[in-house]
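Bug report (template v2)

What were you trying to do?
Predict the complex of my protein with MRU.

What happened?
Run completed; filing so the output is reviewed.

Input:
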Amino acid sequence: MRVGNTWYRSIWRENGTGHVSAIDQTKLPHAFEVFELACLNDAVRAIADMKVRGAPLIGATAAYGIALALAERDTQAALDTAARKLFAARPTAVNLRWALERMQRALATVPAGSRAQAAFDEADRICDQDAAVNEAIGDHALAWIRDKADRNGPVNVLTHCNAGWLATVDWGTALAPIYKAFDAGIDVHVWVDETRPRNQGAALTLWELMNHGVPCTLIVDNAGGHLMQRGQVDLCIVGSDRTTANGDVCNKIGTYLKALAAHDNGVPFYVALPCSTIDFSLADGARIPIEERGEAEVLTLPGATAGGFDRVNIAAPGARAANPAFDVTPARLVSGYATEHGAAARIDAVCGSPTAATAS
Ligand code: MRU
């Protein structure tokens, strides 16, 4: 994606070297900063501190984390420790496990001593494939928007959190069809949920869309139902952190309420996801581990001030807060899924085979 006059991915390796860089998403939209991942611990911290976030990007970062660990010390013990530390960095997005398993498979027959290079190469392949997969998702899901484009006025899409190029290596999942629609000349407008408490919608999605020139409007998380009642939302498109074999969709907290409101108002509710986000080992969403984050994210608000960045308190001193980061939308509330294989009403029509998804 272009930022100013430069094309960026959200994470990249300098040609043929061991230098891995990424965009620091904790600084956006106030500052565009690139940081280097110099070692395993940098990768672990970047994921845990959400400098990089979004299910596919977490997986890509973990892949480079394995390579960086092997560049430091190429032993089985180092590989096992790296996989364990990276796996523990965040619990919900299954792409993390997917990427670690893929790296371990790719390295299984490579002799110690040459595994760092093989790991960097495999991580590069994961990134290239993620960009291609997401573009394919955009092509398939474009039909959802095109179907609504045959009348006056813009097609109004509501999205939650950030499932754009910042959440992936490039293109995004939920935002990929929006970029495709805009680039195809379709009149499209996006309602962007702010996505409390970390405000990925306000900070990241809005920045991305504005950067691309896509018309968009920020709304508070509670506004979506009202807009749907008034006929101001034509469809919802969200991403996913883990979708189970039956099509239950785990995504950023608040997604479920949007799906309920969409269902009540007859608004199609779509999910765009790569197959690496499907967890075939879980029959349904009940046992997905839901990340519980710290109270401070709820009790304070971040923002730009004249002097830099700051957080302000929004609750009485001593107040307690709960902060579940994800929720599960049951498959019965989902109108359709788009993966790299196509778009359909049921997940099993677009998920490829479980073996292929694990192996690719
Ligand atoms: O906590 P985050 O910012 O990592 O959560 C991200 C989301 O919930 C996205 O919607 C999801 O990862 C899909 S990204 C293509």
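What did the reviewer find?
The chain has two domains: 2-130, 140-359. Residues 66 and 132 are 22 Å apart (CA to CA).
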